[in-house]
Amino acid sequence: xxxGAESGLPSSDSREIRFEGVRLRxxxxxxxxxxxAALLANVGEKPVPIGDLPSSTFKDWESFAAEVARHLGPxxxxxxxxxxxxxxxxxxxxxxQAVRVIIGNPLIAITMLRHDLTAGLFAPVELxxxxxxxxxxxxxxxxxxxxxxxxxxxxxRAAARALDAKLAALAATVTARQARSS
Length: 182
Fold this sequence. Notes:
The chain is an alpha+beta fold. The protein contains 6 helices and 7 strands.
C-alpha cells in the first residue's frame, strides 16, 4: 500500500491500494457469432440495467429478489449491457469483432457487498468476446475474487470464490463447441 503522496495527491485525499487481477481466457472453436449467441442464450438477449429495478418500487428484499429472478438466465446471470467495440475499432483499421458484455446478479452481488461495499467496483462482471483467426472466438474476463478481495476478509473471499466458480462454469458452457445448424 502506498500513500497518496506517491501518486501526486495529498495523502489526506487518497489512499492507493495495490492488487493483482487474474485474467482468464477461454478459447473456442465456435465462431464469434455462435459464441455471442451461446452467451445471450444463457444471460438473456435484452439488457436489464440495474437502475431499471429501483428499490423504491419494491416493498421488501423478497419482492426485489423475485423480480430479479425473473430476468436471470439458466446461468443465474442476467445481461446488463453490451458495448460493441467491433463497430468503432474499424475506424482505426482493426477489422475484428469485439463486444464487452456486462452481466450480473444482484442476488449474488449482495453476498459480497454485505462484507465490503468496495466490492461494488467490480460487480457486475464484464466479459470480452473476441473474433479470432480461423473462424474461432474467445471469451476473456478478470476473475472477480482477484479484484474484490484486497484485504484479509474470509467471508468476502468465500462469496467472491463462489462467483468465480459460477462465472467459470458459464464461460466453459458457452465456449464449448456448439452443434452448427445447417
